[in-house]
Structures are given as C-alpha cells and as structure tokens.
Specification:
The protein is of the alpha+beta class and about 200 residues long. The chain has two domains: about 90 residues, Glutaredoxin; about 100 residues, Up-down Bundle (Glutathione S-transferase Yfyf (Class Pi), Chain A, domain 2). The protein is built from nine helices and four strands, in the order βαβαββααααααα. The longest helix is centred in the middle third of the chain and has 22 residues.
C-alpha cells in the first residue's frame, strides 16, 4: 500500500484531499515534530509531505506529488494528463502557491518568536497583496485555475486555512470567501479534515 507522510493541517493535507477525491487506499503516516526519525529515512530535509509507493518509489514536494498521482492514475479530472492550456494554468497556480504564498507563512510558524513585530508586519503586508491578487482571480473564475476544480484548489485551500492562526481576517475578500465555502463543502475536504483533526487531538 502507498504511504503518505504528513503532519495534520500542514501542506501535506492537499495530498490527503486528492487521495480522498480519487478514493485511493493509502497508509497515513503521521509525523510528529518531536520525532522525525522515520521521516528522515525518506526525506533527509525532514519535511512533509513524502509519498512512498509500495514498489519503493519516493516522491517529495506538494506540487510534484499532486501532479504525479494524477498522472499515475491517468485521471484528468483534477489535472490534465495531456499537454493542454489548462494543464499549464494549473501548474502556474501550483507554482504561485508554493513559492509566493506558502513561503510567506514561514516566519509566522517555523521561526515563531524570533522576529520582531515590525518584521512580521512586513510579511503580513506582503501576504495581503497576494490575497488581493487571488481574490481578483476568483472574481473571474469559479476555481483557482479557471472553470474546473483542480489540484491547485486543493493546495490553495490548505494554505489559506492557515490565516486563522495568524489572526488574518479573510471575510473582507468576497470572492475568496465564496470559493472557500464551495471547496470546504466537498466530501473529500471534509473527510481529510475530520481525520487529521481527530489525529491531532487524540494523540499529540
């Protein structure tokens, strides 16, 4: 059985959501920040997610894993397996979330307490600009990469959910709010969220 190394609520949740969407049977390997011994055997950087197939193939990085699984399953519902314009639109959006949005949260989580408030305010201002950009995109299309739900939405919803932990109010973004309500109503999101929240609270 294929395995997913994950931390509840982390970016690895995007892969978990995709697996639920595709009805894949996987082994969830929860990683605790206090003990990454096993994780380090498959990723020397000690980062999640890591996708490990029963045959031994190891895939790292959120965007790569999401694309890899869709290609492997030959399932074009959430990521075109052919060279279409929409495929590259999704890839562009994945790249934006990974390099422009995801990394903006690092100072608030990975280095908590090490930055002065003035420095965090600069990062927050940068984040607000990116949220405005996303809201603008969603004013034109129902989903992050256009007319159809994709793996880009799965990654984005996980990252935007982190705003609640840095006291960032998303209610002022009309189109983001409408989009989040839509994505969070999907059964795959609900299932992944329930499982990860249960794991987080039952065995910290």
């Amino acid at each position: 059985m294929d395995s997913l190394y994950f931390i509840p609520g982390a970016c690895s949740k995007a892969v978990h959501i995709l697996c639920r969407e595709l009805d894949l049977e996987i082994e969830l390997k929860r990683v605790r920040k206090s003990d990454k011994t096993e994780l380090l055997t498959v990723n020397p950087l000690g980062l999640v997610p890591v996708w490990v197939e029963s045959a031994g193939t190891v895939v790292r990085e959120v965007s790569t894993i999401l694309q890899y699984i869709c290609q492997r399953e030959e399932d074009a519902r959430f990521f075109d397996t052919q060279n279409t314009r929409h495929k590259y639109q999704v890839m562009e959006r994945l790249g934006f979330v990974a390099t422009e949005l995801h990394k903006t949260f690092v100072p608030f989580f990975a280095h908590r307490g090490q930055h002065k408030q003035e420095t965090l305010d600069i990062f927050k201002d940068d984040l607000l600009k990116k949220l405005q950009y996303i809201d603008g995109l969603l004013s034109s299309y129902p989903f992050f990469a256009g007319q159809t739900y994709s793996i880009a939405d799965m990654y984005l919803i996980v990252v935007l959910d982190w705003c609640q932990y840095i006291d960032l109010n998303l209610s002022v973004y009309e189109h983001i709010n409408k989009w989040m309500t839509l994505i969070k109503s999907r059964s795959a999101f609900i299932e992944a969220t329930t499982i990860e929240n249960d794991m987080r609270t039952s065995s910290k």
